[in-house]
Specification:
By secondary structure, the chain is α/β, with parallel strands linked by helices. Helices cover about 40% and strands about 15% of the residues. Helix 4 (about 110-130) packs parallel to helix 5 (about 155-175). The model has no long low-confidence stretch (mean pLDDT about 95).
């Protein structure tokens, strides 16, 4: 029960296949109280997933690009719990014209949208919740290795590189308050969002063939377990870190023709 008594806000649940869903499920089994967020057309899907958790949970309205939604979530958590111990940022988006081999033709506004939703929002969420966190609080984000130029990933890859930089600055600025900030760089997983990326299967095949430990794109539980560890007091001296949960793929790299 490494999360016994922890109060956690988890974003990014769309269906029960979402990485964030498995985090919420494991967190509950480890003793945490959980609240989810969603917005717009997908909120009904999130609510259905929320009802399938070991303990059904509430879903709060949050478009992370709207300051008024962030204020509303902060007010709700203050009224509900008085504070919060951890948050998972599992939010990323890039317009269709910013992915799938369109890097050179992507307009600036699409690249900016990818950055705002996928990277700047990590700062926005962490800064908004920081006043509710006591020393020992934890902010965790989902990452994808941004050290290479991957096929098809294009401006989302650029946004993930920005996310990694944002996490370091956020760790610097929240550290004096005793709040930890870390990322989990996961191998490709077959979530609804991932399968929507053109050429996802091509990317996933690299992990299947090269990860020293092997990689199952249908099993998000190793990623969820690592996130729960980072949200727990066992990770109390870890901040500004990127933990790779990818079967060891990052250690051996991609074929030279992809680098």
């Amino acid at each position: 029960m490494i999360l016994d008594g922890k109060r956690l806000l988890i974003t990014g649940v769309i269906t029960k296949d979402s990485i964030a869903y498995h985090v919420a499920e494991q967190a509950q089994r480890e003793g945490a109280s959980v609240v989810l967020t969603s917005f717009g057309r997908v909120r009904r899907m999130t609510e259905r997933a929320a009802n399938r958790l070991p303990e059904p949970v509430d879903v709060l309205e949050l478009d992370v690009n709207k300051p008024e939604d962030l204020d509303g979530v902060v007010a709700e958590l203050r009224d509900r719990w008085g504070g919060v111990d951890g948050v998972l940022h599992a939010i990323a988006f890039a317009p269709e014209d910013a992915l799938g081999g369109k890097f050179l033709s992507t307009p600036a506004e699409s690249a900016a949208q990818a950055f705002t939703t996928s990277a700047f929002s990590f700062k926005a969420l962490g800064a908004a919740l920081a006043p509710l966190m006591e020393p020992g609080g934890s902010v965790v984000g989902l990452d994808f290795d941004a050290t290479l130029a991957w096929p098809i990933y294009d401006w989302m890859g650029v946004a993930k590189a920005a996310l990694e930089s944002v996490s370091r600055y956020l760790a610097r600025d929240l550290g004096p308050q005793g709040i930890r900030v870390n990322l989990v760089s996961a191998g490709p997983l077959g979530t609804v969002a991932a399968r929507g990326i053109p050429g996802f299967e091509q990317l996933a095949e690299l992990w299947r063939s090269q990860a020293p430990l092997g990689w199952d794109i249908e099993d998000p539980s190793p990623v969820a377990s690592t996130i729960c560890f980072l949200l727990s007091d066992y990770a109390r001296a870890i901040s500004g870190e990127i933990i790779h949960v990818d079967g060891g793929f990052h250690a051996v790299g991609a074929p030279t023709e992809l680098s």
